[in-house]
Amino acid sequence: MSTISAGSQPASRSARTRRVLLALYLLLPACLLLALSSGAVILNAGDILAGLAAILGDGEANQATVIIGQIRLPRALLGALVGAVLASTGAATQGLFRNPLADPSLIGVTAGASLGASLAIVTAGGAISGYLGFSLVSLGAFLGGLLTVAMVYRLAQSGSGTSVATMLLAGIAVTALAGSIGSLLEYHASNDMLRRISLWRMGGLDGANYPRLLIAAIVGGAVLLALPRYAAALNAMLLGESEARHLGIDVDRIKWGLIIWVAIGVGASVALAGTIAFVGLVVPHIVRLLIGPDHRSLIPACALAGACLLLLADTLARTVMAPSELPVGVVTALIGVPFFISLLRRRYQYGMQ
Amino acid sequence: MMSALLSLHAACAAPWGNALLEDINLQLAPGQVLGILGPNGAGKTSLLNLLCGATALTAGEMLLGNRPIADWSVRQRACAQAVLPQQSSLNFPYTVEEVVLLGRTPHATGSSVDREVLAATLEATDTCALRHRLYTQLSGGERQRVQLARVFAQVWRAQDAPLRLLLLDEPTTALDLSHQQLIMESARRLASQGSAVVMVLHDFNLAARYTDLCLVLDQGRQQALGSPKDIFTQDMFREVFKVDVTVNTHPAADIPLVIQ
Asked: Which residues lie closer than 8 Å to A117 by C-beta, 6 or more apart?
């Protein structure tokens, strides 16, 4: 495999990093254009430009501008933001746990958010529209995610600090608990509620609108700005926690800060787009394969690659069985699982252990 | 005598409640190399953990420079003191260069200084040829040398900190004979430039040749402290290590030679 042989002699790793970043910066607008042009009605570049101009206030409204402005643009931008947040929080989680096979869902945030959403659907019917389009289901998911992470973090705390190994086990326990409570809820739910719960769980960007996009931009923007500030500390923490401490890193403060940002980012993503599997796991893995584990470039590169991947997956989900739509979480999992298994089998070849 | 860089007075440590170290008394001046020796489980690593701040002092006093150890912030200590643990858990594919440069994390000296330190420490550990290789693909001895280069890089420059202390836990275990010598000579060179070096060792002849002072521990207590010439006696070996050895004088230097 060419990436592997190139990875074993990274004489010009920094040059390679610059090339990969540049390629991702070019790929993102290309993916965005593809997402805007594909669908039931295929639009060309001129239509897209006219559509974008109409949003900015000049140009007349027609079918194309409505499709772009009301449907595809908010959906594409929401997808890009969610993908960027999932992939960069994934990179941060893998660094924090010093395990390239870790995933943000390990700390319980995804399971907690699912339970929160199910609870909202079953108890309130999820019909009540909340503030700024942030429905009660989304709110339940976000709060559920944060609460589970708080619980996992507390369980892992001891007199001598927070153990990431205990956090991982606590995450497994809390995930199982949330899952069984969720099943209990489903057992008592009506058929209609069951369908809504299972659809919500598959994930999707079809609920995209501008209020949701605004929330995603604020929360996602904060997460994407915050994570790079932890890059140097994460680099040192890959050596081991005590080694990082000897390098002057306040390890417990870093852990706490990262957990909070990951919980906020993933919680908001799940609230806005449901559970989207494997982006947080597979994207950091591929990017690390290309440019190495230095978080100063890994985190921004993951954000870009995650945005591209989710844009492509959602475009595929909308078009492959048109006019019906697949949930995007199903598409990312279908692409992600075989890829992940092949990574698992080949990890020794590129220096993972 | 110069003022002590590191001093312990009646120091005790009891992590998890049971006393691992009792009544340790020690003075180390800049430029000195101290070897810590003792049978398995004697408390060698515990003493190193106490010195580096991983374990807290439960009684007694410990001064770094002339300040109590608690007055040092994590960052200040990281600028002044580097620690090589017995094992490393790094399993991400950093290049050798990237690992060594992590040693510069506490310093804000800019990339050109960092590159100079990188070149010098790669030289001092014979890892220049490995610089672009992936750490995860190296052998045990090569990894050990890369980790040594990293801790050397942390305390390489005298101008980066008011004092410098290098703590090494079994730095030569995975190394072949020529690299053992190279590493010990590099550590001595750091000492000759004003750093103090503390290392846990198992090889008495290596200790005799490269240390100024040796501390022999047994069951958490200090059994002997002094120059190798003074404390490497047949009686000490019989008492502490329960072995009979012959102690001669090295044919080429005025140091003891321990023959099993």
From this structure: A137, A138, A140, A141, A144, A197, A200, A201, A270, A271
Report CB contact under 8 Å: A353, B102: no
| Residue B51 · residue B93 · CB < 8 Å | no
Distance from the Cα of A288 to chain B's closest Cα (Å) equals: 9
Q: What is the pLDDT of residue A332?
A: 87
Residue A303, number of CB atoms within 10 A of its CB: 29
Q: Which residues of A touch B75 (CB under 8 A)?
A: 248
Please identify which residue in the block is written with the tokens 């008495």.
Answer: B204
Nearest residue, CB atoms, A248 vs list B78, B90, B94:
B78
A294: chain B residues, CB-CB within 8 Å: 94, 98
Residues of A in contact with B153 (CB under 8 A): none
State the count of interchain CB pairs (< 8 A) between A and B.
91
The phi and psi torsions of B7 (rounded to 5 degrees) equal -140, 140
CA of A239 vs chain B CAs: smallest distance (Å): 5
For A146-184, b/e burial (b = at least 16 CB within 10 A) is: bbbbebbbebbbeeeebebeebbebbeebbebbeeebee
Which residues does residue B7 pair with via DSSP β-bridges, in sequence order?
B27, B63
**A243·B74 Cβ contact <8 A:** no
pLDDT in tens, B8-51: 998 898 887 788 888 999 999 999 999 999 999 888 999 999 99
Strand B165-169 to B81-84 pairing = parallel
Q: Summarize pLDDT for A110-131 with one digit per residue, the tens.
A: 889 889 888 888 877 545 554 4
Question: Given pLDDT bands bounded at 50, 70 and 90, which one contains residue A69?
Answer: confident
Contacts of B36 (CB under 8 A, 6+ apart): B44, B47, B48, B198, B199, B200, B201, B214, B215, B217
Average pLDDT of the residues in A241-255 = 92
Q: What is the pTM of this model?
A: 0.88
Q: Which helix (H) or strand (E) holds B61?
A: strand B59-64
Whether the CB-CB separation of A218 and A265 falls below 8 Å is answered with: no
- Measure the CA–CA gap between A328 and A340, rounded to whole angstroms: 18
Q: A292: which chain B residues are within 8 Å (Cβ-Cβ)? A: 93-95, 98
State residue B205's pLDDT score.
Answer: 92
Residue from A210, A207, A315 nearest A270 by CA: A207
